[in-house]
Every structure is written in C-alpha cells, then in structure tokens.
Design brief:
By secondary structure, the chain is of the alpha/beta class. It has helices at 13-22, 28-39, 53-62, 122-125, 134-148, 167-178, 198-204, 222-228, 237-251, 269-279, 304-316, 341-346, and strands at residues 6-7, 63-64, 69-75, 81-86, 92-100, 103-107, 111-113, 128-131, 154-157, 190-194, 212-216, 256-261, 285-290, 320-323. Bound molecules: iron/sulfur cluster (SF4).
Amino acid sequence: MAEAPTDIASLDPAGLAEALTALGQPSFRRRQLMAWLYGRLAPDFAGMTDLPASLRENLANSYTLNQPDALEVQRSSDGTRKYLWRFADGVTVESVGIPSGDRLTVCFSTQAGCPMGCAFCATGRGGFTRDLLPGEMTWQVALTARDFGLRASNAVAMGQGEPFQNYDATLGGLRLMNAPDGLGIRARHLTVSTCGVIPGIRRLATEPEQFTLAASLHSAVQATRDRLMPGVKRWPLEELKSTLIDYTHRTGRRPTLEYALIAGENDTPEEIAALVAFARGWMSHVNLIPVNPVAGTKASRPGDPRIAQVAAALEAAGVETSVRTERGTDIDAACGQLTQRHRVSAE
Ligand code: SF4
C-alpha cells in the first residue's frame, strides 16, 4: 500500500534538508524550497518555478501543502489586527499583528487551544484541540506580515497554547522563522513564552540559538499561583526560580517574568513583597501586564496609581521592571484574550 503523504508543515529546516536528500537533491534546494514555502508563500508545489519539474512532481506525490485560510480579520483602532486561521482539518487558531512604525511583531499560537487551564485566560477555558506543526506556526507569522505589507521583525509564541508542551514543533517553527531563507527573523527577536514548564526551560538553555525566554509568573505566592495556574502546580516556585537562575548562568540571557496584575488578587502588599523576593538579586526583568477583561472571569485591572506603585516598589528593590502598554484590547487581541471562538461556539 502506498504511504500517505506527509504534511510539509511538519518539517523544520533539518527535516526539509533530509526530505530533499532522500529525493536525491543537492543541498541548495532546501533554501529554494524554504523560500517558496514561507518567504514567497507559494500555495502549491507546481508554482515553484525554479525547481525542476520532476522534483515538483515528486514533492506533490510525497507531501501535502495546505496553507491556512484567513476566516476573519479584526482591526483595532490602534492598528493591531487579529486573524482567525483555519487549517485543512478545520482546526482554527488566532494570531495578532502589532505594528510600530515600520516594525511588526506577530504573536502566534503553538497549539490549538491549551491544556494548561489558567484561570484568567480565554484560551485555557476553551480546552485543548491539538498541537500545531512548525510550518503552521511559521505560516501564521508570514501570512500576518504579508497582510500588513511588512516584514515581521519580531515573533512571540504568546498566542494560544503552551509552547513547551509542544517543544520540538515550536523549536522547529522558530528555526523556520530564523532561517535566512525562511522569514529571516533574528533569534533574539524570537520569544518563547512558557507558563513555567521547567523541563522546557532546561532544554531551551541547551539550544544553540539565542532565542528569548519569557516565563509567566503571575504570583510568587505558591497558593495563589496554584489557583491562577493549576496546570503548573507540579513545578513549584522555588524550582522555577532556581531553573531560571541556572538558565541565566548557562546562556547569559535575561528572561522576562510576565506578571498579569489582577486587582485584589496579586497586587496586594504581601503579593508584591513575594514578587520582589522572587525577582531580586539575579538577572530577571519583570513585565507588569495590567490584566485585560475576559468575558466570564471576574479578573479586573488595578487602577493606574496602583500599577505605578507596584512598578516603583520593584524598581526601588533593584528589579528591572516595565509596564506593558496594551494593544488591540478593543478586538480581544491582547494577552489572555485569544479564544477558539468558532470551536467554542460549535459546542
Ligand atoms: S495563559 Fe497560556 S498557558 Fe495559560 S491557559 Fe492561556 S494559553 Fe494556556
């Protein structure tokens, strides 16, 4: 029986090279193929005109090529756009494009839905559907950039999903985005955001590329964190801190600690004292994110004076701190607001 064709999106740069070698092709063909798939966004193999006709035919017989379709584009008054993509199997995910002058940051999804169940997150409430493939992540970024008519300067794995629960595919996606003939985004401009999956942080510290790491903390009090982020209960805060410190020693890079500020929940004096104790004395950067409204949750944003007080308390303790300016809140494109609306509404 003939083997079923493989999805070309399942291959990272090394996988594409192996596939071409198996088809008897010289190594430079990988650059050409990657440029067609993700640079020029060819919708099929037939149109890859500088590849020999016999190779195009072999590729079409052995692989499927299914770019996602844009089901919906929402445009925010601040220039942010949110996209709903549908893959060939009907699964949908969202990406967000955030322009700033001639720069474009694209927030992409690594899973359809998410198994982690964070209390304040719309994605977690929608459940988990499936892992995404490296090419499916790369297409979100490339197609978003094409719609803006810009090159993506930065890409962040902060959309739906926990990247380290889909580690190999996420690294494969980052490598396609980083490759000069893929999207050519510098490694330091590619960020992986984890909710604290320690084995993934350890592995990332050993990778050769200088990808950037962000870890969602959201509380440095164990009981609060367990309630807000039940999916990472098994990796306690103490171990998270020692793993992150070890990461800074191995890589020389400063991870960001994401902290979604929720009024009355994790902005109290006790919570802020615990945050200071967690972040002080090592190479961390705290990014305060005043929480966004998510339908069906009670989480609310602290007032501006309280946000300023928290930032000042951290700075006074010597902790490098920033407050994120939210973009795209009016189209539910900000952090924690992405959902799988089509899937959820079909249930
Ligand atoms: S915050 Fe991230 S890890 Fe948590 S449920 Fe949402 S998508 Fe998943």
